[in-house]
Amino acid sequence: MIPCSFFPAKRVAAVAVVLAVLGAPSIALAQIKIGSSLSVTGPASFLGDPEKKTLEMYVDEINKKGGIDGQKVELIVYDDGGNPNAARTFATRLVEEDKVAAVVGGTTTGTTMAMIPVFEEAQIPFISLAGGIPIIEPVKKWVFKTAQTDKMACEKIFADLKKRNLTTIALISGTEAFGKSMRDQCVKIAAASGITIAHEETYGPGDTDVTPQLTNIKGKAGVQAVVNTGFGQGPAIVTRNYRQLAIPLPLYQSHGVASKQYIQLAADSADGVRLPAPALLVADKLPDGDPQKPVVTSYAKTYQDNTKQEVSAFGGYAYDGLMILVEAAKRAKSADPAKLRDEIEKTKGFMGTGGVVNMSPTDHMGLGQAAFRMLDIKNGDWVLVPESGS
Q: Does residue 113 sit within a domain?
């Protein structure tokens, strides 16, 4: 195995995976440079760390198998720590200094939105791994994403609530970009979905206790369930405080907590929480006839064997983004950013860890509601909720 080299800088990690020369020794091989800015440290680290590990792991594998049509892949990863300003700085560096052909990254909605203008201006295709719908709506020519949107999460949760005859809810929302965006989407579609939002509360990314907000919810008459929009450590704090107050209502979280690290942070309080998430989290629990099972079980085994860690939805989003780009490069037979962009947009029938992707000029994500499974947390593990629900 050819080793990776790490070049540390302030909150920055860059990895270049170099492939031995293939083919005729007299012909210099072309190279595809892929850039990434991820939140490997900071409050979103449990999203960004598996994303970075996934990209490095699969670029290494791609190069060991001969690269992309004989072209070696160089992966350059920066750690933005979840800071949008840092992310924009690294985006500029990827364009101006590293001269990448495409970017797979953007852990959070906030960092992604900060980087979009840089890549749009430079006309470099950018596949984000974040959840906020503003990333792709309205459609931006050079921007794509792999994670299911916050709007989709609201729709999935509301449909499940209706199945349980629960129609009046309280919202508690994080004030960071994803939490605010999902809150806005839930409010926007609630009435049409047959859901009444009777009360709202918010919490900041630095809050370590949300007992006052949850106490207000507990005292609100008529509320039948609570939905938390947010990601990172905030939802774990909400979950712990929720159980401490013994609120006797179902608690829903978003796919922003689709990681065992959330369960570890929330501990026993996580039991009973319900959320929409990709099939990857329950890869071993899917029926054998599920068409997504081969992909998610293969990724899960590869990730766990290489990292000795549990899989999360977030590493899966990185896998999907990289493989969509790789397939686009094979079709384009080029590392030209414009040709890569065009082929990414033509992605059809791609079976990823997040679902089946069918992109188009009007849809730069390409996922439908089938990309979400509804999960419960029981005894510290994910449990697939039957489609009939209860």
A: yes
